[in-house]
Design a protein that fits this description.
With 242 residues, the chain is α/β, with parallel strands linked by helices. The protein has helices at residues 2-8, 27-36, 66-73, 88-104, 117-130, 143-152, 178-191; strands spanning 18-22, 41-50, 77-82, 108-110, 133-135, 156-163, 202-208, 215-226, 229-240. It has 2 domains: 2-135, Rossmann fold (3-Layer(aba) Sandwich); 143-240, putative n-type atp pyrophosphatase, domain 2 (Alpha-Beta Complex). 33% of the residues lie in helices and 27% in strands. The strands form 2 sheets. A 5-stranded parallel beta sheet has the order 3-2-1-4-5, sandwiched between helices. The chain has a 4-stranded antiparallel beta sheet with strand order 7-6-9-8. Helix 4 (88-104) crosses helix 5 (117-130).
Length: 242
Amino acid sequence: MRGFEQVYKTPFLSISMKLAVLFSGGKDSCFAMFKAMKENEIACLISIFSENKESYMFHVPNIWIVEKQAEAAGIPLLKFRTKGEKEAELEDLKKAFSEAKKRFKIEGIVTGAIMSAYQATRIQKLCKEIGLKCINPLWHKNQIELLEEMIKNKFKIIISGVFAYPLGKELLGTQINESVIKQLAELEKKYKINPAGEGGEIETTVLDCPFFRKKVEIIDSETEYENYSGVYRIKNAKLVEK
């Protein structure tokens, strides 16, 4: 794995590239895009809609909101579906990357991977097969520092899923702020959870960030929670002026 780490610790090349973002609508893909777009062109977003709510590869809660986010960002969105079967879903992802390369002449894929070698190695392998660069701006960054940086850059992020003890129902729908980050840092020390949810403990949805021309306003939602597992489901939303 040493060579793998060396690859991912160099997130950008010295020349500007035309890129696609593997986009879930969560904080990590949005923040990776925020960093990548400073020196590169973001040609399109790629979102995978998985039928498996426990997908190994893809974000599931509120994935439909990517349509609103793409409109807010003014960037074309390519949507693809997968049954979410382990490993087989990678073929669907490969087709998505190939389609993006064909339509938008992209040179690389941006991901929000932080620590997940399972996801990152597979995406890197697919990119290599297709002839694309794999760009990971957040790779191996301190998770608390990343959360603090997101808030500092005026990202409005809500927690849309919790899937680990002792994460409570009260977190669902909560906006991540300094107080929540402090709480997550304490839980990391006591229970060894990943404060940014990189282990699948937490899912998020971004309602506003610097590259959104409008912000997402939630009109209707519902919360489901049982046995330290739950989802804040956005049933309806609209874009509004900032």
